Amino acid sequence: MNPRILVLAHNHPDLHPGGTEIFAHDLFSAYKRAGCEAVFVGATNDIHRERRPGTSFQAINDAGDEMLFWAGHFDRFNMSQTDLYAVAPNFTELLKTWDPDVVHIHHLVLWGIELPMLIRRVLPHCQIVMTLHDYYPICPNDGLMIHRGTRQRYLQADRIGKRCGLDGIAPDRFSMRTVNLRNHLRVVDRFLAPSEFLRDRYVDWGIDPAKIDVMHNGRPRAHAVPKRDVGTGMPNVFGYFGNLNPWKGADVLLDASQKLTMDDVDFELRIHGGVPFQTVTFNEKIDGLFEQTGSKVQRMGAYERADIPELMARVDWVIVPSIWWENAPLVIQEAFQHGRPVITSGIGGMAEMVRDGHDGIHVRPDDPAELARVIKDCATNPKLWKKLSGHVRPPADIDDVAQKHLVLFRKMIRPDFVAA
Hints:
36% helix, eight-stranded mixed β-sheet, globular, Rossmann fold, Glycosyltransferase_grp1, Glyco_trans_4-like_N, 2 domains, six-stranded parallel β-sheet, alpha/beta, Glycosyl transferase, glycosyltransferase activity
């Protein structure tokens, strides 16, 4: 028997095409293809949608099983929904009306940490599953686990106030935040982590190891674009895909590109992505770095998901230079889907996804000199590209990943269930 599944994310990919939203929506679609009744609800706020008086729900498209939940009153530090008087009754009505067997939560931003307990009170027998896509409950610095000023990463959540660089907040508030979040998450029946690294961080933080499993993400099946025809030349075109922000390492990549230009290395770098919601200081820094790189670096700008195959067809390598503990970057799966080897920071989930020396290369994070050296080696060594690209494996198919989720859900609903 297929379970009825309510999928909750902190936005909808049509409004905010982040990796979590894309994966959550792809998984929702796979649930439906597997024969399940499923509903997708993305929380949103006035950054993407104005509030419409009279209802908390809004249509996102013509589908009857997808909607938005306007949740614009959110305390980011405490991960708390500050307008429960308005939010709780409307969401309670949805829970009672649809009565799902499983609520699959993909994020609590905008929803609020109160959400799991609300679900438990309204539906005592419903199974609550939460995929932990990042470290937001652990770290109030947008879940980055990195110091805002020094860019130093930290593995443990101890002394978090000092480690994340949030000023003006009393130390006891960090402790109270942790206690409150962990207490609310106790009602979650099962946690899923897309990487071993992320699972370990949450176990260190206090999640019961018996309640958290590793479940890797997947991608919808797609035909790989042909590898670039390099003729007698070198496979020396590199691509960066994703928004530009202080933690994605775009500035590190541009610094490395300056070094390569000064050394007269024959390479081309195509940087795809916009700079949304960044400070004036960061925008000025990025603009200045682009001006200094010369003609070998092309600023391609923002792109749509549908553009990925065409853009990927024009590069030989994909670079993911993030300086924070990325968990399961969508761009790595997109690169592997199209047979492109990946140069990535050898930390976090990135180090798990890319096998160093096999289908990509690990570099030290936040180190432009080493990144420049590796790019030079890759740009001048066609045998290396041939070896690594030949070992690239496509990511797991999203329908296969959905089946793994469904086996787990059925077992949770019926402990005597045995998968065929």
